[in-house]
C-alpha cells in the first residue's frame, strides 16, 4: 500500500533503521549456546524419531489465545444455522456472512473491536478462527474492525472515538475502508478523489473527478455499509493564488447510507463489484461521489487538521511524513493476513496429509497397495510444505507478539521492526500458501476436486491475500528498500572493502568469503548444524544485498533511480525473499531451542532442518555459482533433504495432530480421523455398508 | 491411467521402442542446416525486432481447423441464451451445458462424434473452441463423444456401432465412462467391480462388491446418462474349480436409466458427486450396481469375447496385453486435454498481457506512471509464460497431427510415439498451465480477482486437467519408464562406457562430456544458437537417464523393483520432464525454421530463445553442478534471459494478437482491445462518462 520505494526515498526517513534492527534479531547472542546444544541432538539416521508426548507437543504449538479460538469454533459448531453450505448463491452468502458476524458479536460474546485495542493478539486469534469457519467471515470482520474501525480510531481523535466506537463495536455502524480506486491500488499517493474545504459552510466536499477515481473493491460497500472512511486529496483554498493547495492524501468519514432507511445518500453512487474469484460472502462495491458535503469534524485529524478558517495544522512537518504516519497505522491488516494465512496452510496441509495416509494406490507385486504418502513424489510435495507450515507458525506468532508490544509501548524501534517484518512475512507467507493450496489439491487427485474437501474454496478465498493490504511484489520491494537504506546509511562514501566490513560488523561473525574447505563438508552433523544453515542463509542475503547496492549505484548514473531500481527488480525481490527466509529460520531455531519437552524438541529439530535444507537446495544454483558449496556438498544437501522428507513422513500424522485442528474444523470428509471413506460416501447419499469390509 | 511402470514391466513389451523413435525425432537430420540458417538471424541487441506482417504472423499461427473453431465461436456469439453467466447455480449450469451441447450438434451443424473418427484434428479443434465458450461444455463433449462414444466404437465391434452410433451422435443416448472407483483411480488394474458371466441366462451380472468399488466421478451419471461403459473384472465360470476365473478388466455397456422415462433402472443406485472445484456444468455421479444383468452382447468385445458357452477368445495372448490394448484406445482423451490446455493458457496470457499493457502504476518522479508490463518483475512473470505458450502451441499441434496420422494408418510406430508424446505433453502442459493461471491472477492484482475477468473460473475448471485421463505424476512415470526401457534394451549387460556409447549412438552427435572451454562461452550468438540450446537440453536428459538407470540397478538389489523405483522417483520425474522439454524445444525450433515470413521468423526465434534459456536457467544448479556451464556462463544465461524478457515485452502486444482471440472469446473486460476500463465500469452498472477524459 505504500508508495514506490525509489520514487519516494525521502519519504522514508522514519524507517531508515528498521531492517538493521531486524538483522540484530538475526544475530542474537542467545542463539549461539543453543546452537551448540542443538548439535548434540542425535542425527536422524542414528535414532528413529517419534513423538513420545503428543500432549506436550500440542501444548507447545498452541498459541496464547487458543481458548478464544476454541470458543469461536464451539460457537459455530453449536449453530448449524450459521454454517456456510458448500453451494450458496452470492446474495445469500453475503447475508449469511453478516448474520455470522452479528451472532458472534451479539450472541457469542466475542467483541473483536475491543480486542483490536486492548489485546491485538486476541483479535488476530479470533480473526484466524473466524476465517477457518468461513474465510469471508474473517475478512468481513477485518473490514469492519481492523479497516473501518481501525481507521476511525487510529487516524481520528477522541471526538471520533466517542461518536463511533459503540456503533462499530456492536455492528450498528457497518462501515467501509475506501482507499483503492479503479486506477490506483498500490500507488496510494496517486489517488484522485478530492476533499475540498469550503470555508463558507465549514464543510469538505468529497468528489470523484473521473471514473478512474471511483473507489473500487470497497468491502461492505455494495450492501451493508453505513459509512466509509474515504481517502482523498485534501484541497485547501489558497489565499495567495485564489485556487486550492493540495495537502496530500487524508482520510474522511463519509456517510453513504441513511442510518434508518438504509437508502443511499444523495451524491453517492454505489455499484456492486459483483462476483469474485472467492470471498463472495463479502459485499465489495464501487463508490462514486458527486460533490458530497461532510462536516469539517469528519476529517480524521490525528496527523493533520484544518481549522475553522481553513488553516492546516499538523505535528508532522511534511506531506510525506504525514502520509507515512497515516499508512503506518494500517499495518495491523498485514499482520492479520500473514497470521491467518498460516492457518489456511495448516488446514490444507492437514487435509492433504491425512488423506495421503488414508489413500492407497499401487504397491509391490502381489502385496497390498501402499499409502500414497509412501511415495517419494508425494513426500516431496507435502513434507517441505509441512516443515514450512511449522516455520511460518513460529515466525507469525513472533510477528503478532511484536505487534502487540508495539501497540502497548509505541516504541519507535518496535514500530520499525513490525513494519518491515509484517511486509515481509505477509508477502512471503501468503505467496507460499497460495502455491501450496494448488499443490495440495493436485496431490489429493480426484477426491481433492470435490468441493466438500475444501481445497477449491480455500484457494479461491485465500488467493487475494497476495494482493490486498499491499501487493506482495510491492511489499517485497519495501523490504528490499529498507535493507538497502540501512546498508547505505552505514557505508555512504565508503569503498567496497568498507562495505564488506560493514556487513561483517552489522551481521555478526557469521559472514565469510566462501571457504574452499568448508564448501566441501558434507557430513550430516554439519548440514544439520544450525550454524551452517544460518551461515548459508545469511551469506546469500549479504551477497545479494551487496551486489544489489553496487548494481543500483551503477545503473542510477545512466537510468536514474527509478530506471535503475526497475533494472534490478528481480534481484531486489530475491534479496527480500532471502532475507525473510533468514528471519523465519532464526525464529524456528529459537522455537526448537526453547522447547522444554525433549522428544518434541527432537522432532521439531528435524522439521527445522528440512525447512533450512529445502530452501538451500531450492537456490543451489546461486550457492554453486559462488562456490559456497562444492558439487559433493550440493549432492549431499539434496540427499539429506530427500531423506528428511522420508523421516518426516514417519511422524507426519503426529506433526499434523499437533496442529490440533478437530474434524469439525477441517470438515473435509477425506480428512476425517476415522471412517473417512464412509463419511465421504454417506455425504453423497449412500447408506452405510452393513459390515465395514473395506475399512 | 495405466498400471505401475515397475510392477508391470512385462506388460509393456509393445511400447519398448516408443521413446527411441521419439528421440529420433529429436535428432532429425533436417535440423542442422536450419540451425545454421538461424544463426544468421541478427541478434536481439543488434536489431530491434518488430512484427512487420501481423497477418502473416497470425496466419502462420492458425491451425488447419481454425475455420471450424470460428464456426463454434460465431454460433455461440449468435445465441446469447446459451452463454454461461458469471454466477449460475450448479443445477442450472448442468442443464445449460446439456442445452449448449445439444444446440451445437442439432442446430449448429457441428457433429463431434463423426470428427472423432473421420478427422480427429477437427474434433480436437471443436473441443478446444467449446472449452473457450465454457470449459464444462468442452468436457461434457469429451465425456459424450471421446469417452462414452469412443469406448463403444474403439472397444466394441460392428454390432455396437450399428446399435449406438446414431444415438450417441445425435445425443439421444447420453452416456458415461465408468472406469474410476472410489478406491481406485490411477491403478485401473485394481478395480473391484465384477462382471460375472451367467451361462444359464447368457448374461453378465454387474456388481459392486464393496463401497470402495462404487464408480465415482462419472461424468453424465448424476443426471443425463442413459448408458454407461462400465469397466469391471470379467469373471468366467471355471469348469475345473467350479468357481470363477478372473479374466482381467473388460468394458461393458450397462443401461442405467430407462430410455423413455429416464427412471434409474433396477439394481442401479445413482448418487450425485455434488459440487466440484470447477466444471460444475458437468454432472458427475457415483454408480453402485447390485447384480445388474446385461445381455452377453453388451461386452465390448474387440479385444476379447465370451462365447455362448462361456469360452473366452481373444486375438491377444495375455491379460496384460489385452489390458494395454484397451487402455491404448483411450489415448485420445490425453491428446485432447493437452491440446485444450494450451488454449486455456493462451486465453489467460492474453488477458494478463493486455491488462498489463493497460494498467499503469507508479513511475519516475514527476513523470507519468508506467504500464506494469514495463516492470522487470511483471516481465519475469509473463514473458517466459508467453514463450511457453508458443512452445506448447507448436508441440501440441504436432501431437494432434501425429494422432490423426495414427488413426488413419494404425502404424505401430506412430501408435507408440503418440502414447509417449501424449502422456508427456498432457502432463507437462497441464501442470504448467495450472501454475500459470494462478500467476496471471496474481499479476493482475485486484482486478484479476473479479470473476468477470475469468482467471478464477479458468483455474477452477482447468485444475482437474492435471488429474483426469491419467494423473500427471503417474503419466510422467510412464514417460520415464519408456525412456528406461529403450535404454535397457540397448545396453543390456553392457558396461558403463558402452552406456555412454549407446547414448552417443542413439541421440546423435550432440552429446559430449562437459567441455571446459565451451562451458565458458558466454557470447549471445552462442547462447542463442539452437545447437547450444539443444545440446544443453539433451545433455541434461541423457545424464539423468544414465544416472537413473544406474541408481535403479543399484537399489533394485536391496529394495526390489518397486522400492527402487520409489527411491528414485523424484529423479525419474525430473528425467521425464527434462525429456519433454527437449521434445518441445525441437518442435519449436522446427516451427521457427519452417516459417516462410522473415519478420515472423525473427520474432519467433526470439520467443524460442527465451523458452530455451528460461528452462536452462531454471535448472542452472544441475548444469553448474556438473560444470556443464561455468559461473560466467551461468550469469550470462541469466542476463540474456532477463534481456529477452525485456525484448519480448516490446512485441508483447503483437505476440498476443497473433493468437487471434477476439474480444468476444476472451470476454474479460480488463482485456478488451479498446475502452477496457470503460467496459469494466459499465459492466458493474456505471453510466459511460460524458467525455472520456480518463481513457
Automatic annotation (TrEMBL), chains A, B:
Active-site residues per Swiss-Prot or TrEMBL entry: 469 (proton acceptor)
BP GO annotations: fatty acid beta-oxidation using acyl-CoA oxidase; lipid homeostasis
Classification via InterPro entries: ACOX_C_alpha1 (IPR055060), Acyl-CoA_Oxase/DH_mid-dom (IPR006091), Acyl-CoA_Oxase/DH_mid-dom_sf (IPR046373), Acyl-CoA_oxidase (IPR012258), Acyl-CoA_oxidase_C (IPR002655), AcylCo_DH-like_C (IPR036250), AcylCoA_DH/oxidase_NM_dom_sf (IPR009100)
GO molecular function: acyl-CoA oxidase activity; FAD binding; fatty acid binding
Domain of life: Eukaryota
Chief location category: other
Stretches assigned to the Acyl-CoA oxidase C-alpha1 domain: 328-483
Record Pfam families: ACOX, ACOX_C_alpha1, Acyl-CoA_dh_M
Name of the protein: Acyl-coenzyme A oxidase
Lineage: Eukaryota, Viridiplantae, Streptophyta, Embryophyta, Tracheophyta
Amino acid at each position: 500500500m505504500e508508495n514506490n520505494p525509489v520514487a519516494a526515498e525521502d519519504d522514508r526517513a522514519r524507517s531508515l533503521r528498521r531492517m538493521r534492527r531486524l538483522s540484530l534479531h538475526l544475530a542474537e547472542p542467545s542463539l549461539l549456546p543453543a546452537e551448540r546444544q542443538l548439535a548434540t541432538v542425535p542425527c536422524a539416521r542414528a535414532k528413529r524419531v517419534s513423538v513420545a508426548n503428543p500432549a506436550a507437543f500440542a501444548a507447545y504449538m498452541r498459541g496464547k489465545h487458543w481458548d478464544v479460538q476454541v470458543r469461536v469454533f464451539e460457537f459455530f459448531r453449536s449453530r448449524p444455522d450459521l454454517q456456510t453450505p458448500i453451494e450458496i448463491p452470492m446474495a445469500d452468502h453475503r447475508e449469511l456472512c453478516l448474520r455470522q458476524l452479528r451472532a458472534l458479536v451479539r450472541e457469542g460474546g466475542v467483541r473483536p473491536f475491543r480486542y483490536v485495542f486492548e489485546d491485538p493478539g486476541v483479535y488476530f486469534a479470533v480473526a484466524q478462527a473466524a476465517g477457518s469457519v468461513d474465510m469471508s467471515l474473517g475478512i468481513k470482520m477485518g473490514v469492519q474492525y481492523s479497516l473501518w474501525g481501525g481507521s476511525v480510531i487510529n487516524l481520528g481523535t477522541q471526538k471520533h472515538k466517542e461518536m463511533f466506537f459503540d456503533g462499530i463495536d456492536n455492528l450498528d455502524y457497518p462501515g467501509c475502508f475506501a482507499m483503492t480506486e479503479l486506477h490506483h491500488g498500490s500507488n496510494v499517493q496517486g489517488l484522485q478523489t478530492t476533499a475540498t474545504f469550503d470555508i463558507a459552510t465549514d464543510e469538505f466536499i468529497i468528489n470523484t473527478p473521473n471514473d478512474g477515481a471511483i473507489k473500487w473493491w470497497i468491502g461492505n460497500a455494495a450492501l451493508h455499509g453505513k459509512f466509509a472512511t474515504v481517502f482523498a486529496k485534501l484541497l485547501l483554498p489558497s489565499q495567495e493564488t485564489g485556487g486550492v493547495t493540495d495537502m496530500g492524501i487524508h482520510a474522511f468519514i463519509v456517510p453513504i447510507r441513511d442510518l434508518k432507511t438504509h437508502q443511499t445518500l444523495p451524491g453517492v453512487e454505489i455499484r456492486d463489484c459483483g462476483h469474485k474469484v472467492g470471498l463472495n460472502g463479502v459485499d465489495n462495491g464501487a463508490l462514486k461521489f458527486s460533490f458530497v458535503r461532510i462536516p469539517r469534524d469528519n476529517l480524521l485529524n490525528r496527523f493533520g487538521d484544518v481549522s475553522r478558517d481553513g488553516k492546516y495544522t499538523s505535528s508532522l512537518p511534511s506531506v510525506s511524513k504525514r502520509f507515512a504516519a497515516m499508512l503506518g497505522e494500517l499495518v495491523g491488516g498485514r499482520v492479520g493476513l500473514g497470521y491467518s494465512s498460516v492457518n489456511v496452510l495448516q488446514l490444507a496441509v492437514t487435509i492433504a496429509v491425512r488423506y495421503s495416509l488414508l489413500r492407497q494406490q499401487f504397491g509391490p507385486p502381489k502385496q497390498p497397495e501402499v499409502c500414497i504418502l509412501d511415495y517419494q513424489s508425494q513426500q516431496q510435495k507435502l513434507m517441505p510444505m509441512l516443515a514450512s507450515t511449522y516455520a511460518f507458525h513460529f515466525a507469525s506468532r513472533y510477528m503478532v507478539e511484536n505487534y502487540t508490544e508495539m501497540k502497548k509501548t509505541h516504541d519507535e524501534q518496535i514500530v520499525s521492526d513490525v513494519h518491515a517484518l509484517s511486509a515481509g512475512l505477509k508477502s512471503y507467507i501468503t505467496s507460499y500458501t497460495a502455491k501450496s493450496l494448488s499443490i495440495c489439491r493436485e496431490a489429493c487427485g480426484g477426491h481433492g476436486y470435490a468441493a466438500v474437501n475444501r481445497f477449491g474454496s480455500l484457494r479461491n478465498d485465500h488467493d487475494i491475500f497476495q494482493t490486498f493490504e499491499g501487493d506482495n511484489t510491492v511489499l517485497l520491494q519495501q523490504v528490499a528498500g529498507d535493507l538497502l537504506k540501512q546498508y547505505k546509511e552505514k557505508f555512504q562514501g565508503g569503498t567496497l572493502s568498507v562495505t564488506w566490513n560493514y556487513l561483517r560488523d552489522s551481521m555478526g561473525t557469521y559472514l565469510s568469503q566462501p571457504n574452499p574447505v568448508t564448501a566441501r563438508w558434507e557430513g550430516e552433523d554439519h548440514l544439520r548444524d544450525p550454524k551452517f544453515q544460518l551461515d548459508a542463509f545469511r551469506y546469500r542475503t549479504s551477497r545479494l544485498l551487496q551486489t544489489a547496492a553496487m548494481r543500483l549505484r551503477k545503473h542510477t548514473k545512466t537510468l536514474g533511480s527509478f530506471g535503475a531500481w526497475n533494472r534490478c527488480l528481480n534481484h531486489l525481490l530475491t534479496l527480500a525473499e532471502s532475507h525473510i527466509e533468514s528471519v523465519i529460520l532464526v525464529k524456528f531455531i529459537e522455537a526448537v531451542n526453547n522447547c522444554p519437552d525433549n522428544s518434541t524438541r527432537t522432532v521439531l529439530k528435524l522439521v527445522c532442518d528440512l525447512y533450512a535444507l529445502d530452501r538451500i537446495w531450492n537456490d543451489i544454483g546461486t550457492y554453486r555459482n559462488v562456490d559456497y558449496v562444492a558439487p559433493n556438498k550440493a549432492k549431499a544437501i539434496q540427499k539429506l533433504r530427500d531423506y528428511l522428507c522420508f523421516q518426516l513422513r514417519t511422524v507426519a500424522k503426529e506433526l499434523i495432530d499437533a496442529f490440533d485442528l478437530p474434524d469439525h474444523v477441517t470438515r473435509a470428509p477425506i480428512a476425517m480421523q476415522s471412517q473417512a471413506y464412509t463419511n465421504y460416501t454417506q455425504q453423497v447419499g449412500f447408506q452405510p455398508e452393513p459390515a465395514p469390509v473395506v475399512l
